[in-house]
Amino acid sequence: MKGQLPARISNIEERMLNSEGFQWGHKRRFNSYTEHIRKTFGGRIQKVVVDAGFTCPNRDGTKGKGGCTYCDNDAFNPSYCNPKEPLHVQIAKGIEFHAVRYRRAEKFLVYFQPFSNTYAPISRLKEIYAQALDYPDVVGLVIGTRPDCVDDAILDHLKELSQKTYIQIEYGVESCHDKTLERINRQHDFKLSEKVIRKTHELGIKTCVHLIFGLPGETSDDMFRSVRIISELPVDSIKFHQLQIVRGTTVEKEFLACPDDFHLFRLEEYITFIVAVIERLNPSIVIERFSGEVPPRLLYQPGENDGKYDPEKIRWGLIRYDAVLRLIEKELERQSTWQGRFYPGKDQK
Ligand code: SF4
Questions:
Q1: What is the pLDDT of residue 6?
Q2: For residue 44, how far is its CA from the centre of ligand 1 (angstroms)?
Q3: Measuring from atom 5 of ligand 1, which residue has the nearest CA?
Q4: C or N: which end of the chain has fewer Cβ atoms within 10 Å?
Q5: Which positions ≥6 away from 84 have C-beta within 8 Å?
């Protein structure tokens, strides 16, 4: 029985593939953001992160204080970003930073990443976005924010911009379960995320969603449920992150006090889990990331412990994303599987 399986899978696979590859138009086994961007712009595009000095309503006391329990913006703010420097200086430094490490791109997307990048009066936002778009060879903006930080005026402005250039909003959704959102102190519920995603899509603005796997209290069934819910929403792209235990955060304290509350993954478990996620994700959703990495100085470093948790579930957070991506693609290949194979409701293996 076991020996017949690969032949059956490869027949199905053959039907999924045409000369152009899978339904997303290439032969990689998932709807890849890199390929999507290459197709959209006809070449390599580099994202350049900027810090425009925004804050967040979950930090300044408007919605909450202390922020989401896992949050440390230093964990994802590159070294070349300094909010004290004008935007054009940050963009120039970002372009240079990438040029010495990778093949120089000819076009750029300015990525407003740290904190909530729509959290300011509309007049200021208009000015900041215009400055970024005015920089030579910038072909669009990617704007990270919270679902409760956009209103009609902001969305209308982004709609206007998106009719002329590439605009994508990235919403931190993190989980589709209110019990989790409450526990991590997000200060908004999932209903709001859903409403805002639908509205953004209706206005024709590209919408990306972040989900975190391993949040306290969540089982892997809860995580799969989030993937199923997002698959039914008008989402253009998605980023997955494993929960990182970042030093000095509330999550670090909670984890050390009660590690059993966290369903974290060893690297090999995560690869297996993420392949199952890919199989269940709507194939029309472009996947931007499968995992995150944090600078070594920020990741909690498990030392000798009392056996209460497995340090290998934390340490792999230091592995470079490219290496994790290679393992995922290898596993997709090994299993002869692909994105959306079990979508919708074609489960289970
Ligand atoms: S919304 Fe974002 S920036 Fe604000 S506290 Fe949460 S993770 Fe941090």
A1: 45
A2: 30
A3: 67
A4: N
A5: 53
Give Cβ neighbours of residue 283 (< 8 Å, ≥ 6 apart): 22, 23, 24, 31, 338, 339, 340, 343
pLDDT, one tens digit per residue, over 247-288 is 999 999 999 999 999 999 999 999 999 999 999 999 999 999
Catalogue the E-assigned strands of 26-96.
45-50
Q: For residue 214, which phi and psi values (nearest 5 degrees)?
A: 110, 10
- The two three-digit tokens of residue 317, written as one number: 């957070």
Point out the ligand 1 atom lying closest to the alpha carbon of residue 57.
4
Dist CA 68 CA 263 (whole Å): 18
Residue 307 CB burial class (10 angstroms; 0-12, 13-18, ≥19): exposed
Does ligand 1 have an atom closer than 6 angstroms to the CB of 91? no
Question: What pLDDT, on a 0 to 100 scale, did the predictor assign at position 124?
Answer: 97
Domain ranges (residues) in the chain: 26-334
Q: Strand, coil or helix: what is 145?
A: strand
Residue 64 alpha carbon, nearest atom of ligand 1:
5
Rounded CA Rg of the chain? 20
In this structure, whether the domain defined by 26-334 belongs to CATH 3.80.30.30 is answered with: yes
Out of 146, 171, 193, mutate this one to test ligand 1's pocket (max ligand atoms within 8 Å of CB): namely 146
Distance between CA atoms of residues 77 and 51, nearest Å: 8
* 153, 124 Cβ separation under 8 angstroms: no
